[in-house]
Amino acid sequence: MPRVLKFDFCLITLYDSYLVNNINEGINLLPKHNEVLVDLAKSHFQDRPFVYITHRVNSYSVDPKIYFKTSKIKNLVGFAVVSDKFKAKSNAEVEKMFFSKPFEIFGELEKAKKWAKQLVASFN
After folding, report:
1. Which among 46, 57, 97, 112 could disulfide-bond with 106, CB atoms 3.0 to 4.6 Å apart, if both were Cys?
2. Given pLDDT bands bounded at 50, 70 and 90, which one contains residue 106?
3. Has residue 120 been placed in a domain?
4. For residue 122, is it within any domain?
5. Where does 1-91 show beta strands of DSSP type E?
6. Which domain covers residue 35, as residue numbers?
7. CA-CA distances (angstroms) from residue 15 to 1, 113, 117?
8. What total number of domains does the chain contain?
């Protein structure tokens, strides 16, 4: 059963092997926001591998420096961006250059979830 967590800047749904994050409209995502992800990696996933999926339904900006710290989360094995918007996908192509682990871009959430499950299974 998924667990939903609401923060002032996003809504995160936790699953066994991945999480789906919906960032609020107009947010400028900064490295300080990354602390939530670091805490969830420790508390929810513990030492189990997981994938971060960002479902970009809203418009917001991301400071690319955030990916340097995100890449250092030991049990984070992949990152997926889901959007049907051209601008969000092209921004993700740039963000991908700052991330040192598998990073994929999808048009549909279900495809990202399937990829996440396969990626995590390859680490078990």
Report:
1. 112
2. very high
3. no
4. no
5. 3-6, 10-14, 18-23, 28-29, 50-55, 61-62, 76-82
6. 3-112
7. 7, 10, 10
8. 1
* Residue in 55, 52, 51 with CA at minimum distance from that of residue 88: 55
Q: Return phi, psi of residue 22, to 5°.
A: -115, 110
Model confidence at 45, in pLDDT bands (50, 70, 90)? very high
The pair of structure tokens assigned to 78 is 């992949």
Alpha helices in the chain (DSSP H): 34-43, 66-70, 86-96, 109-121
Nearest to 55 by CA among 96, 115, 13: 13
Q: Quick check: 34 pLDDT over 90?
A: no
**CATH code of residue 14:** 3.30.750.24
